[in-house]
Amino acid sequence: MTETYDIAVLGGTPGGIATAVRSAREGHDVVLVTYNAHLGGMMAGGLSYTDTLTKKARSPLLEEFLERSRSHYADTYGKDSSQYEYCEDGYIFEPHVAEEIFDSLVEDAQLLDIAWQYRPSSVRRKGREITEATFESIDDGADLSIAADVFVDASYAADLAALSGVSYSVGREAREEYDEQFAGRLFTQLRGDQYYPREAVGNDDYSAPVDRKGPLDVPEEKQRGELDLIPHPAGLTEIYPQSTGEGDERIQAYNYRLCLTRDPENRRYPEKPSSYDRTEYETALREVRESGLRSYLRLRYLPNDKADMNSADLPGENYDYPDGDWETRDEIARRHRQHALGLFYFLQNDEAVPSDVREQAREWGLAKDEFVENDNFPWQLYVREARRIHGRYVFTENDARHARGIGRTPITNDSIAIAEYPLDSHGCRKECQTGSQPEGFFYASQVTRPSQIPYRSLLPETVDNLLVPVALSTTHVSYGTIRLEPTWMHIGESAGFAAAQAVSNGVNPGDIDVSRLQTRLVANGIMISFFNEYDMSTDEPWTEAIQWLGAHGFFDSYDASPEEGLDATIARRWLEVTRTILTGGSYDCTDAARSLDESGETITATEFDRLAAEILPEARTVDTPFEGTQTLTRGAACQALYETITASQS
Q1: Phi/psi zone of residue 506: left (φ > 0), alpha (ψ -120 to 50 degrees), beta?
Q2: CB atoms within 10 A of CB 605
Q3: Quick one: which of 12, 56, 25 has its CA closest to 527?
């Protein structure tokens, strides 16, 4: 028997949940197929310290998650409590709290069904469309067949896309393939004594303290720069000479994010794993002595005397995961579990470990109130990278770096979300050069800037009714700025709007009017362009306009400057680009931004109206909110032009 839905989503990841919940809230029948008995992917599976350089309102479902997290700690413990302090406005949370929030988001969506613990097994296609997907129960092997108008693959490994015949990449592109500085074989070193990017710091003292933690803990005096990002206390020192840039099929390391506690009443020491080999951990001794236990384990403190542990990577031992069968993947997961527990056991018990380090290690143990159905161990392996689909646009490193001639990254007219986290990768091999991190590691916070995510990157080349918001079309390098759970929630919610629009219009996601989608997104609080001065919570008449126009070449920097007077030369250029949009012409948005030269003379409302009558197509008018000889502000001009453009969409 086949069950029929408007939209079928694979993956109980944050991105998958955002897609499914948004599609259901838009009034469509949706099914969310999960791999296990838990929702939330890594956000509920141990990754409790949110990876982001911005707290700007950017995606309603992400903001809703954060508000529920914040409210949990405020209501349960009080705003004067240490628990509320450690939750950092909801961005830091215990795993079980995250899972409860995701459960509630799904439960509140009335048109959303959940198919628990299924894996995709086969796909039926008709031409360029998926007509039906079959999933196998992990519990009893029974089949579940689902037919839908739109399918969404929000799994970490693009499993449904692969079964559908979508081509994909695994591994690293060569440096010359997309002209990417950090591509291919690479040796670098990490520094943690300065904040980056420097434009975000705002003074001459970029230094970071020895006990630095992460971007959510950066003091306010280090966040006063022109670029409105939270600086990160990490960056690259150098690229080593054997960094040849050769491409290969290697991927970055996986691990488990253990949730630890030092509360004696809630602490459980891990037992020695059955496959324990102490020699595997002897190389850790020098680094532990030099950096200290907390730094080595990369502990990030959580509410209720807990910590998120981000260590125990195994470079080189996950290469078979992306294309592996379920047994292969399970074995890789078991190996990573044994390694993480073995490392902790070694640090707590081995006599080769200095006694003071052993004592520090024994302050911590597995939290007994987390992952209670899985022996207090995370149920989600941190699959940082697996398959990446071949889409209608390949997002590269250069899409996340300054474009030539303008003060922002390249501009794409089909932007549906933003990314801002540093381009990065964990090690891909254990090999090191003297003083370097494992081969393949990089953390490029110095050069990464807020970018726009093209809708085309979610669209496979060969399937028209499939969206892929998680393992989307990127290179290995650029995946580093996208593979963050808040970014995937942001992209996933936009995918939910796109899927809903496709079903409502009776077309495939690959055929929708993207400019109308963008109008819908910005009207509903989805950020598609990053600006310094404001976010999607800003209650101004120009908010939506600047967002939409920001994806169409109207700004050459991250400063929208909505209250400043509009330069006369820029006014003419804006009107010329608007004419191209209204007449259905094509143009390069980044080139349009490069052409925004200023004359130094502002324009009045009357002059702007006269110029609009001269430039815009016949019968097109612009209704500015200013009158006569008043200087027209940039925000008011954007509002007027956007209203003219959206009127043409009706």
Answers
A1: left
A2: 22
A3: 56
Q: Considering only CA atoms, give the Rg of the chain.
A: 25
Angle at 297 between CA 295 and CA 303, to 5 degrees: 90
Strands 423-425 and 442-444: what pairing? antiparallel
The tokens for 216 are 């959510």
Other CB atoms within 10 Å distance of the CB of residue 157: 24
- Cα 384 to the chain's mean position, in Å? 12
pLDDT class of 521 with cuts at 50, 70, 90: very high
**373: which DSSP letter?**
G
H or E element that contains 329: helix 326-349
Report CA torsion sign: 49, 52, 54, 57. negative
**pLDDT confidence bin for 298, thresholds 50/70/90:** very high
Q: What does the alpha-carbon distance between residue 201 and residue 205 come to, in Å, rounded to a whole number? A: 8
> Pairing mode, if any, of strands 235-239 and 188-191?
antiparallel
Amino acid at 603: I
Say how far apart CA 312 and CA 85 lie, in whole Å.
28
Buried b (16+ CB within 10 A) or exposed e, 235-260: bbeebbeebebebbebbbbbbbbbbb
> What does the pLDDT read at residue 1?
78
Q: Which two tokens stand for residue 534?
A: 């404001």
Whether residue 619 has pLDDT greater than 70: no
pLDDT reported for residue 621: 67
Dump the DSSP string for 434-490: TTPPSTT-EEETTT---EEEEGGGGSBSS-SSEE-SSS-SB-TTTHHHH-SHHHHHH
Of the candidates 143, 166, 344, the one whose C-alpha atom is nearest the C-alpha of residue 260 is 344
- C-beta separation of 467 from 498 below 8 A: yes
Burial class (CB in 10 A: 0-12, 13-18, 19+), 569: middle
Q: How crowded is the C-beta side of 297, counted as CA atoms within 13 Å?
A: 26
- For residue 210, pLDDT over 80 is answered with no
SS3 for 231? coil
Mean pLDDT of 249-253: 98
* CB contact at 8 A, 408 and 555: yes
Nearest alpha-carbon partner for 387 in 451, 441, 318, 481: 318
Give the span between the Cα atoms of 297 and 283, in whole angstroms. 14
Condensed to tens digits (0 to 9), the pLDDT of residues 257-273 reads 999 999 999 999 999 99
In contact, 397 and 478? CB cutoff 8 Å: yes
- What are the tokens at 359? 């004592």
- 428 close to 318: Cβ distance less than 8 angstroms: no
**Which among 93, 113, 112 is positioned nearest to 101, based on CA atoms?**
93
Instruction: Give residue 409's pLDDT.
Output: 98
Pairing of strands 143-153, 2-10: parallel
Q: Is the pLDDT of residue 5 over 90?
A: yes
Half-sphere exposure of 424 (CA within 13 A, CB side): 21
Give tens-digit pLDDT for 566-589: 999 999 999 999 999 999 999 999
